[in-house]
Structure formats: C-alpha cells, structure tokens
Amino acid sequence: MLAIFVSILAVSLAASLYQVSKAVAEAKMAVSPQDVYRFFIFGSILNPSLRFASIMFHISIITSLFGHLFIFVKNVDPLLPKIGTAVGITAFVFLSFLIATRKERDKGYLFVSLLTLSCAISGVFQGLVAPRQYLVEMALTYPREINLASTLLVFHVLCASILAISLPKAMTSHVTSPILFLVLKIRGRKLRMSIQKLQRQIL
What we know:
Layout: H1 2-26, H2 33-40, H3 48-67, H4 79-101, H5 107-129, H6 132-140, H7 148-170, H8 173-202
Helix pairs in contact: 1-7, 1-8, 3-4, 4-5, 5-7
InterPro entries: NarG-like_sf
Transmembrane segments: 49-71, 83-102, 108-125, 146-165
Protein name: Respiratory chain protein
C-alpha cells in the first residue's frame, strides 16, 4: 500500500516542481523578505484566532507527515504512537475550526479540507483500534483480512492518494512562494555581484 501511495506522490511532486520551475522562469520581480515572512506567519489572516488556528494546523500536519517516516523504524518508544494520535487530533480540531469559520466556501478549498480531515480522523482512529506494529505491517504490504483497522487504513491511504493527486492544482502555493523567493534572491545576488565586478573593471 505504501508503494502505491509513494508512486502517486512522486508523480504529483514532479508535476508540482514543474509548475514551480515554470513560475520561476517566468517571474520578473523578486519577492520582498517581508512578503515571505507574512506568508510563513499567515499575515494575510487578520483575525488573530484564525491565524493561530492556521499556524497550529500546519505545524501539526507537517509534524504528522514527518512522523510517518517512523514506519521504517521497527522498535520505537511506546509513547510515540500516542504522540502521533495526539498530533492527529490537534490537526483535526484546528482544521475543523478553520472550515467552520471560513466565510468563502469555494469548492476547491472544501474538497481539499474535507479530504485532509478524513485523513486525520482515520489516522487517529487507526491508532486507537489497533497496535502500531499491526498497522505498519499492513501499510508496508497489504491488508490480509477485512476488519476495522484494515478498513480505516485503506480509507486513509485512499484519501492521502487523492490529496497527492490534487497537489499540483490545489497546493502549489505552499511550495511555489518560498522557493520562488529563494531563487529570485539568489538570482538578484548574482546580478548584483556581476554589476559590482563590472564596475571594478571599469574603475
């Protein structure tokens, strides 16, 4: 099951990176450091509670994503799965709050948000109904029996796969903005160095 998801994610990431490279190639103006800072702290969200909820959701979901790497570690501290469950609950709670309080309910946002909610809650329930090792074995191979844990896992992977497919369309801004800034800053630094070198040669 993991191999299927990773294959889908790899293709989706390739498409996203292509869009990023295209945006960088077509960009004519550099992004200011202030704009990127506002991007990372969600400065465009004026409501303090919504901004806090957005930051907490993104922190928890990123933590959860990196936590999935522990699937390749056979023996982990017994506390780790509980932490993972708590992180999943945190992501679910804050995203639910964001969906409930959002005034602009466009279909794309709702689609991605509900998929993410489904991923989070199915991951949480997996941790509650089955031991970690059992879930890891199923994830690395495939479910050999139909039960609540295997059903939740299949649903979790399905939602995650659909999210991965939607990545180039719905989530490019999460990748494009910071990369675009860094590339343009490097490009601008090289240009300044070239100008300074030319000035020294003239003088």
